[in-house]
UniProtKB/TrEMBL annotation:
Residues 11-21 have a biased composition (Basic residues). This is SRR1-like domain-containing protein. It holds the Pfam family SRR1. Belongs to the SRR1 family. Residues 89-256 form the SRR1-like domain. Residues 9-31 are annotated as: Disordered. GO terms for cellular component: cytoplasm; nucleus. InterPro entries: SRR1-like, SRR1L. It comes from Aphanomyces invadans.
């Protein structure tokens, strides 16, 4: 996700990559939301520019199709999403992508290519009914919207700031590469009472937890609170010897920290997070989900730099 978006202007006049976080949908009384940078968006897309971008994304899709990580990714999705279907009834799901950026960036184009493979997998799975796939980034241009539409994604017209809700009848896979902690917290708090219907593919919650040192900060961290109750699966191992490693590392390097000690040439860069019913019930028993949503504070995103 571009560093030039998701800026929240708070009461202290302090600027950071943060949208408003509230348990309920944003109200008219919410503090102002501003961006450090707003890309120019022509009223009419440039056909030549759109065609060039579309060609680039399609090339990335083809290259990624041959990558070694897709099998790991699909195995994780199959084990934690497709397995949720009840008897002969397909699981109804939506794919929501936040923060990919403008596809003029190679990183954003790679991230869209990954989203395309996820959408195709969901749409082709017998146990899943993909109701729709959508995406949003505030710096997307009209040319980006043309590319997204050509890849079968709907482009959201408003900034939800992560407040989209998942339900039992419409479960949700959020794909959030390079997004800041505040946006993750918004998604979690918007679904505080329905976490079992939420799946998040993006930055590692356990890595966020590992970087919290002070006890007071740990108590305020939503990631530290939820780590015991989430199934986190690292997927997508890329060997440094692979031709596309450098580009993949640049596009996804914030999605999982470190690599296994016994495999120094391997980098793991995706984490899929799921909240099984048994763990949600445990969180309820332990009082975690009874905590006021205003008690959580993500601090800063400096640990992503």
């Amino acid at each position: 996700m571009s560093d030039e978006i998701w800026t929240f202007v708070g009461r202290k006049g302090k600027s950071a990559r943060k949208p408003v976080v509230k348990h309920q949908a944003p109200s008219n009384d919410a503090p102002p939301f501003a961006y450090k940078h707003k890309a120019s968006a022509p009223s009419v897309p440039d056909k030549d520019a759109s065609a060039i971008l579309l060609g680039k994304v399609r090339r990335h899709v083809d290259v990624m199709r041959r990558s070694p990580f897709l099998g790991h990714l699909f195995d994780a999705l199959d084990g934690h999403i497709a397995s949720r279907k009840v008897e002969d009834t397909p699981l109804v799901i939506q794919l929501v992508c936040y923060g990919l950026g403008s596809f003029t960036s190679s990183n954003a184009a790679y991230q869209l290519a990954c989203a395309v493979h996820i959408r195709e997998w969901l749409a082709g799975h017998a146990a899943i009914h993909l109701q729709h796939a959508c995406l949003f980034d505030p710096i997307m241009t009209q040319d980006d919207a043309v590319v997204a539409s050509a890849m079968d994604f709907d482009v959201l017209t408003t900034n939800e700031q992560g407040h989209r809700r998942a339900t039992k009848s419409l479960q949700t896979l959020f794909f959030m590469p390079h997004c800041g902690k505040q946006l993750y917290q918004n998604v979690l708090l918007a679904n505080w009472e329905s976490l079992q219907y939420v799946f998040i593919l993006g930055n590692s919650f356990s890595a966020y937890d590992d970087r919290v040192v002070a006890a007071a900060d740990r108590h305020k961290s939503i990631f530290s609170a939820l780590v015991p109750y989430v199934d986190e699966v690292a997927v997508g191992k890329i060997a440094k010897s692979w031709d596309e490693y450098v580009q993949y590392d640049a596009a996804f390097n914030d999605m999982r920290y470190g690599r296994p000690r016994d495999a120094p040439l391997i980098k793991t860069w995706h984490s899929l997070h799921a909240f099984p019913a048994t763990k949600v019930e445990a969180a309820i028993r332990d009082g975690v989900l009874a905590r006021p949503t205003g008690s959580f504070d993500v601090g800063t995103d400096e640990d992503l730099m």
